[in-house]
Amino acid sequence: MSASTRISPEPVMVVSQVEEPDIVVVLDHTLLGYDDVTSGLRRGGWLVVNSQQSPQELKVKGDYNIATADATRVCQELGLIVTGITVVNTAILGAFIRATELVSLASVETVIKERFPSKAVNSNIAAITQTYEITKLHKL
User: Fold this and answer.
1) In this structure, is the dihedral angle defined by the CA atoms of residues 115, 116, 119 and 122, taken in order, positive or negative?
2) Which of 85, 99, 80 minimizes the C-alpha distance to 25?
3) Which CA distances in Å does 74 have to 42, 53, 61?
4) How far apart are CA 67 and CA 47, in angstroms?
5) What is the C-alpha separation between 105 and 128, in angstroms, rounded?
6) Cβ neighbours of 97 (radius 10 Å)
7) Sheet holding 65-69, edge to edge
8) Cα–Cα distance for residue pair 54/17, rounded to 1 Å
9) pLDDT digits (tens, 9 = 90+) for 93-124
10) Above 90 in pLDDT, residue 1?
11) CA separation for the pair 36, 60 (Å, rounded)
12) The model scores a pTM over 0.70
């Protein structure tokens, strides 16, 4: 399964699938075994992976930067588990922010406070911040 998100300071009017992404975020490192995961990733772009391995240990080949962080461990420690499944989608934003610098931690925290139920705010902000702090970068 894949999903696309377009990020821009201007309104985005295009609704088609992204074919040549600048950034690919992989929530489950085992998906790296599939060739199409990084298909179309632009040269110099970012591959952000939820993994306990360093970017070099992933042994992924390509002309792009790689960031890794063990968001799963962070979420397990914080109890971000729903029906037995560790939920890493919010935590991986920390690695995304650290790698790309497209948005700030402060701006994401503001959105979390505005949109999440009050009981979920602190644990999700902690997950983002901790994942940000443990992110390992390998730049071209």
Assistant:
1) negative
2) 99
3) 29, 14, 27
4) 6
5) 8
6) 22
7) 23-26, 46-50, 65-69, 136-138
8) 30
9) 999 999 999 999 999 999 999 999 999 999 99
10) no
11) 12
12) yes
- Distance from C-alpha of 57 to C-alpha of 44, rounded to nearest angstrom: 19
CB 130 within 8 A of CB 74: yes
Phi-psi map region of 64: left, alpha, beta (phi>0 left; psi -120 to 50 alpha): beta
Question: Hunting for tokens 């029906």 — which residue is that?
Answer: 83
86: enclosing H helix or E strand: strand 85-86
Span 82-98, average pLDDT: 96
Q: Which domains does the chain have, with CATH numbers?
A: 23-138 (3.40.920.10)
Tell me the pairing of strands 136-138 and 65-69.
antiparallel
- Rounded to 10 deg, the angle between the 92-100 and 71-78 helix axes is 140
**Section 37-48 average pLDDT:** 94
